[in-house]
Amino acid sequence: MPATNQDETLLLHLNEAITTIREKDQLFQIIARKLRLIFSFEMMGINVFDKELLHKRLFFKDYTTVPSPEPPPPGADQFTPIAGSPVEQLLADPRIQHIALSEYVRHYADFEPFQRLLRQGIQYMTMVPLWLNGRLTGYLILATTRLPSYTHDDEALLEKIASLVAVAVNNSLEFEEVARREQQRTLQLNVTNALLSIKQREPLFRAVAEELRQVVAFDYFGIRVRRAEARGTYEGFAEFARPDHDPRAPLLALDPNRFAGREGEMASYYNQVADLLNHPGLYAGDDYRALAVRYPAMRYAYDEHHVRAMLVVPIWQRADGAAVLTLASSQPTGFGPADLATVQALVPQVALALENLFAFEQIEELKAQVEQERTYLIDEINTDRPTDGLIGSSPALRQVRERIGQVADTDATVLITGETGTGKEVVARAVHQASPRRGRALVKLNCAALPAQLIESELFGHEKGAFTGAVERRIGKFELADGGTIFLDEVGELPLDLQAKLLRVLQEKEFERLGGNRVLKTDARVLAATNRVLEDEVRAGRFRADLYYRLNVFPIVLAPLRERTEDIAPLVQHYLGTLSKRLARPVRAIRPADLVRLQAYSWPGNIRELEHVLEQAIIVSRGPWLEFGGFAAAAAPLALPPAPVEAAGPAPALGPAAPETPDNAAPLKTLREQERDHILLALRRTGGRVSGASGAAVLLDINPKTLEARMKKLGIRRTVVAD
């Protein structure tokens, strides 16, 4: 037998292997080879116990001379009860024991591991207890086909070896635990990433199931939900299965309506197992077989789907319903306690995913409802206008309709020009409604209605903290218009620095929020409008030439109302109907003579001015006819009392304006003179007021600040400002 030096050398080699080798199978195979240098045996095995000494499991097994050893059955590495097995006798006398299997089999005939050893020719086993810090942790087993002969020194050496093996086993178990926790953390991280990136029900839970399958093997993954109004029935919220139990095949989504017509039967099934669904549970092997005998639902799964193990984890139990996660396996030992712990650790994330999905689905329902309401309101709004919103049939308007038809179905940028009040926004809406983008939003922004420092935020949005008062992130108009159309009214008023940023959007379809550094993409079609002559603005250096050429891809020019007098009659009829309804006044007839005078007027304010004149007439009229006061009688702009408005230079008298005649030989005023006269006329009508509810800015439908800037540029001084 081995000498003392050999013993010490063996112990040194074992100790070195234990301290340097982390891989479990490699380490214990080295231990087995070293032991065979001194002891003769055909199989070495290690059994470990739990701390309570109630359960055991096979930790390691290695054969040498046994031909074609039987592989361990599935689940052999899972903990099983000690009670009722030969191990209970070893626990009663925890010392080195040499046992004959034939003797033990007489008392434990149903203990399959011993029967399997006997079939392989094993007759004897030497059982060496593993002690660690005074606690019994398992047994080292040396099995032989012949009766072994061990001396007292041999047993003393085995005890020393067992103490080293106990340390090695403990280290391996700790490494396994660390690996398991790391695996759980990785699983939770991957599931969290899925929750953050996927919002649809099936893709999200498919990703969760696939991640879980990397840690816990299963044939079925199901989340079933019972809503408060469902009266006990659990509906399939997300269910997946492996086709033909192939572990390499991707999961297949199960049809949630596969039990249609059997709702009553399924409700009965789930009511029977309600107690099982209320608590975490692991049912495998004989335990699941017992449930299949007791519950028809389990019997159905046992017979139809060959389920032999099931893991149940409640997600929540609340007054408004319940949710449960179920895993199923065709293997009797498919799940273990560690699998149950792993799934339970996922419950908070799965619950959050369910809550988010419920919220998203509710939002989608509300969104659909709002969209329907929006469609209804749009239909209501458009009932009093032609399909394209344009009223009239003059040659100029027919040409505009033709231009709209030519460009609407493209994504080309459109520049709409014309005097103020000619209906540029109506044309923009007509282009949008005739385009393939009509199902998305038409987002409008008046570039003259906001201070320069706020226009950029309106156009491109801003991040939280981008400037004082930016207490939250705000989405800009281009982001809102993604997939739709953006209408930039008064684009000629944009500051030069913003013109460069708008040019980038037109060229690259990208921008950045104010205060942000992330480049955002937009697929918004741009429609722009201005009452300025942009060519003059480019020559004056107030407008970028490159932006002008980008905007002026397809120009649509709107003629002033004085050049399409045949449209005045239909416009009058339209506004009489809509304004009378809005003002709750009866629709009164217009005298033919008054209509002629309206058609003879030059309308410097165009359609907007016509609308305001008709609105005033509807308000003051009391008889059967529409009354225009001094307007119709003079066949000219309404004579107004003088207002304290002064011009910084020669200005026309602030008395009644001279009647205009359609004399083609009369000299034409410049656009600047026409604009100046138009503003003076508005100021006369408002008594010199610029802002406020009755100010000239409202009459001209422009921002008061913009009007003041134009007055300053044209040399008009005001002395009255509304409170």
TrEMBL record:
It comes from the Bacteria. Keywords: Activator, ATP-binding, DNA-binding, Nucleotide-binding, Transcription, Transcription regulation. One of its GO terms (biological process) is regulation of DNA-templated transcription. PROSITE patterns: SIGMA54_INTERACT_1, SIGMA54_INTERACT_2, SIGMA54_INTERACT_3, SIGMA54_INTERACT_4. Gene3D superfamilies: 1.10.8.60, 3.30.450.40, Homeodomain-like, P-loop containing nucleotide triphosphate hydrolases. GO terms for molecular function: ATP binding; sequence-specific DNA binding. This is Sigma 54-interacting transcriptional regulator.
